[in-house]
């Protein structure tokens, strides 16, 4: 019985730690959501700007912001709660990500901790850059999409649907900009070498163009180029960084074990 109790204790400790970290993450999200609640009107104004600033949108409906509307008795309240929570999740991301990290970190080796910290630190600005670019191209995307509205009709868009569309664009660009972070991280842990990343560069470029053509909201070349060109640049940048890391790793391994092959040096250390 003692052995069973000893085996169960680590699991119980992990569950208690998970509960503690989850509770702290929920608290910071709720507190940050208060900011979204009190500045709800200002946030809505910024979100609606891509539509409100378009003459095509202003002439497609009855209001100044064209076709945006809220439906139902509970619609305004539900929308404010949704915007507040989304704002809280975004603003408190560094804090709840830290809680997640604090839960995972004790089970990692020193090298894994260093690589994961580097991943978190570098992933945040790249995601922010992508999300910002996604927001900036919204007017272009909306103008193109609104252009398909027949002159004899009004395009009425529920704000909940519009908000989901905005979030999809921002998340798409933000996650797409994580490409170099993932490539470099895979290289640091020994999963990919720089030459493995750069050798099939034609396939990578074709895949990036295909990805942007499939997932950008509009099919115009300008919008596709705004996403494809940075991704191509980040791809080559990640390949260059990975190549430099490989050279340092191979040199260090050769000093430790003279005559070791580059392939052996790239094998992940368990």
TrEMBL record:
What are the GO cellular component annotations? TAT protein transport complex
NCBIfam families, per database record: tatC
PROSITE patterns in UniProt = TATC
- Family matches, as InterPro entries: Sec-indep_translocase_CS, TatC
Q: Which UniProt keywords apply?
A: Membrane, Transmembrane, Transmembrane helix
Traced from the root, the source organism's taxonomic lineage reads:
unclassified sequences, metagenomes, ecological metagenomes
Q: What protein name does the entry list?
A: Unannotated protein
Record's bilayer topology term? Multi-pass membrane protein
Please name the source species: freshwater metagenome
GO biological process annotation, one example: protein transport by the Tat complex
Q: What sections of the protein cross the membrane?
A: 21-40, 83-105, 117-145, 165-189, 201-219, 225-245
Give GO MF terms, alphabetically: proton motive force dependent protein transmembrane transporter activity
């Amino acid at each position: 019985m003692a052995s069973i109790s000893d085996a169960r204790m680590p699991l119980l400790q992990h569950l208690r730690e998970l509960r503690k970290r989850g509770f702290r993450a929920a608290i910071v999200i709720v507190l940050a959501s208060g900011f979204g609640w009190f500045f709800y009107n200002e946030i809505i104004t910024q979100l609606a700007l891509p539509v409100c600033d378009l003459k095509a949108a202003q002439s497609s409906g009855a209001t100044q912001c064209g076709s945006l509307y809220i439906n139902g008795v509970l619609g305004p309240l539900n929308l404010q709660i949704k915007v507040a929570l989304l704002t809280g999740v975004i603003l408190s991301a560094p804090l709840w990500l830290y809680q997640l990290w604090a839960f995972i970190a004790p089970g990692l080796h020193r090298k894994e901790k260093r690589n994961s910290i580097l991943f978190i630190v570098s992933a945040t600005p790249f995601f922010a850059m992508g999300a910002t670019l996604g927001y900036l191209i919204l007017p272009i995307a909306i103008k193109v999409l609104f252009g398909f509205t027949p002159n004899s009709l009004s395009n009425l868009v529920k704000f909940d649907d519009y908000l989901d569309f905005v979030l999809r664009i921002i998340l798409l660009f933000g996650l797409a900009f994580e490409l170099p972070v993932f490539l470099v991280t895979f290289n640091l842990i020994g999963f990919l070498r720089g030459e493995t990343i750069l050798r099939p560069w034609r396939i990578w470029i074709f895949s990036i163009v295909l990805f942007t053509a499939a997932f950008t909201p509009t099919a115009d070349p300008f919008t596709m180029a705004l996403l494809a060109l940075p991704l191509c640049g980040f791809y080559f940048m990640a390949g260059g960084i990975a190549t430099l890391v490989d050279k340092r790793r191979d040199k260090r391994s050769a000093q430790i074990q003279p005559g070791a092959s580059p392939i052996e040096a790239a094998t992940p250390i368990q």
